[in-house]
Amino acid sequence: PSILASVLFRSDGYHLGVGDCCDLARTSALYPAAPIPAVSPRPVAAVAAEDTSAIHGYSPWRTLWPRYWWPSLPDGLHGKSRIALETSGSDVVGRHAYAAGIAFPRDNSGVTWSAAYEYRGLGLPILDAFADQDWSLAGAIVDQGPPERTLSEIHQRSRDAEVTATWLRPRVRRSLSLTAGVGAEQTRNVLVPGLPSGVRLRDPSFLDARTYPSVIAALGWSNAQRPPFSISPEDGLAFAGTARERWRADSTAASSLSLVGTGSLYKSLDLPGYAHHVLALRGAAGIVGVNNPGYLDVGGTSGTPVTLIAEYTLGEGRRTFGVRGFEAGSLLGDRALTGTIEYRAPLVRAGRGLGLLPVFFDRSSLTLFYDAGSAWCATIVAVGNLCTADQQSAFDIGARRWIAAAGAELNITAAVLSWDSPYRFRFGVAHPVHADVLFGNPASVSWYFATGLSF
């Protein structure tokens, strides 16, 4: 007897069955094969004996040039939008890819720009280069008076550049990635407008440019599964860690190491529905050295931006220390901790569109969550951006304050303007259940919209 194998595709993945089949000799006797009619052979076209066309090396330029410019109005300083243009492109074989954008302010708040390039011609590693410039409001110069008046604003210009190499090792049950690279960040404060004549600063050194070279290493590993029609990663673990060593180029101060790590656990539950229910847990921790110019911020809604038209994105980016129900940067410090627990349940698998409209509703699910996070300054320094003595006396930033929120999300997976690329849209409500004394009584409920999985 022969063996028959069959594959059945269901909502929880592929099911493989193997069993004994029929006796082929007996089947052939009962059901003799029908005679095959004679068919005249088709004429075969003559093959060219010689190709005399010129042979050239591969050139990516014809397909690499930008094909569009996408305008947008991103937010700038003082709530005034900037006028921006973005573009991107790649060659036909995917060896080169790039993205670039520039934004012009409607006031004197500085031009911002960014550029990124990726090269896959080596196979492995994948090479990436990135550079950008941004402007932010860092403070103000105030005349103590009386009367007290603002003489000038302090605008901080940040320039950042990185070159990294990434090695990928995908396998059937797990994946591993390793990234290493170098970078540099430069910050400079500018007075806008300048000080009035006759006014001098007691310590103008804060206007000097500061450059911070860095060395970067990142590691990621996951064995979580993602069956077809699932609503979440299932039955696995995922870890990611990043280490960055920074030092100030014009100072003899010791270097500053920053470490950030995240871990996620997913466990499926075989309960009624078109897909498995999932219990998901995530934790994140970070440490920033005292000489580091940056800090860690806790709060905000994490997600994955999606591109709808050209380079127009919808939704916010991934937040390492997100706590829903609170604004981004609600807590700041050189130490940070967050934890999240989610229960994800399938609702309806619609699988239908709206007539001829470019919208297709795929499936929906419900998420119940609890987020908690804390940030504080473990070391108080004399001079710095955040963990300084004056900040300690004003806000008690050395105290370990916690914020926490509980809520629910309705997740709708749908394809908009493209049937081949469904996106996850999240409509959520969050209620702060713990906000410490800095935030008063945590009684308000906030509504939010996000895209992509929270983690």
How would the blueprint of this fold be written?
Elements: E1 3-10, E2 13-20, H1 24-30, H2 61-64, E3 70-72, E4 82-90, E5 96-105, E6 112-119, E7 126-143, E8 149-170, E9 175-192, E10 210-222, E11 236-246, E12 256-269, E13 277-288, E14 296-298, E15 306-309, E16 312-314, E17 331-333, E18 335-346, E19 352-353, E20 359-376, H3 389-395, E21 401-416, E22 423-434, E23 446-451
Antiparallel strand pairs: 1-2, 3-4, 4-5, 5-6, 6-7, 7-8, 8-9, 9-10, 10-11, 11-12, 12-13, 13-18, 14-17, 15-16, 18-20, 19-20, 20-21, 21-22, 22-23
Describe the structure in your own words.
- The chain is mainly beta and 455 residues long.
- Helices cover 4% and strands 51% of the residues.
- The protein is built from three helices and 23 strands.
- It has helices at 24-30, 61-64, 389-395, and strands spanning 3-10, 13-20, 70-72, 82-90, 96-105, 112-119, 126-143, 149-170, 175-192, 210-222, 236-246, 256-269, 277-288, 296-298, 306-309, 312-314, 331-333, 335-346, 352-353, 359-376, 401-416, 423-434, 446-451.
- The strands form four sheets. The chain has a 17-stranded antiparallel beta sheet that branches. A two-stranded antiparallel ribbon has the order 1-2. Strands 14-17 form a two-stranded antiparallel sheet.
- A hairpin with a 2-residue loop joins strand 1 and strand 2 (13-20).
- The longest helix has 7 residues, at 24-30.
- The protein is globular.
- It starts with a strand and ends with a strand.
- The mean pLDDT is 84.
